[in-house]
């Protein structure tokens, strides 16, 4: 399945914040939304566990994940591709 044919709602983009588990990484997804009454921009962050079959992600990588069937109790996304690798300091 190519990324061009996917709906935007099925993919999420975020930054890897933890890679301590086998074949699982935690990404942080940041969404910005305007408050309906006060018209200020609110920033919401959510942490999502994604399945990384080859353990190729490291902390700081920007990745795109795709929604799949439930893989476990908390994993419902799979790694699609690594957009940008983390810069080593």
Automatic annotation (TrEMBL):
An example molecular function term from Gene Ontology annotations: structural constituent of ribosome
Keyword terms: Ribonucleoprotein, Ribosomal protein, RNA-binding, rRNA-binding
InterPro entries according to UniProt: NA-bd_OB-fold (IPR012340), Ribosomal_uS17 (IPR000266), Ribosomal_uS17_bact/chlr (IPR019984), Ribosomal_uS17_CS (IPR019979)
Pfam family, one: Ribosomal_S17
UniProt entry tagged with the keyword Ribonucleoprotein: yes
Residues in the signal sequence: none
Family: Belongs to the universal ribosomal protein uS17 family.
Subunit relationships: Part of the 30S ribosomal subunit.
PANTHER family: 40S RIBOSOMAL PROTEIN S11 FAMILY MEMBER, SMALL RIBOSOMAL SUBUNIT PROTEIN US17M
Name the record gives this protein: Small ribosomal subunit protein uS17
């Amino acid at each position: 399945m190519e990324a061009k044919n996917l709906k935007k709602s099925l993919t999420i983009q975020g930054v890897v914040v933890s890679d301590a588990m086998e074949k699982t990484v935690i990404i942080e997804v940041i969404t910005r939304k305007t408050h309906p009454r006060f018209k200020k921009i609110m920033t919401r962050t959510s942490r999502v566990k994604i399945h990384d079959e080859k353990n190729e992600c490291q902390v700081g990588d920007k990745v795109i994940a795709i929604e799949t069937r439930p893989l476990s109790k908390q994993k419902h996304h799979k790694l699609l591709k690594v957009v940008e690798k983390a810069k080593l300091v």
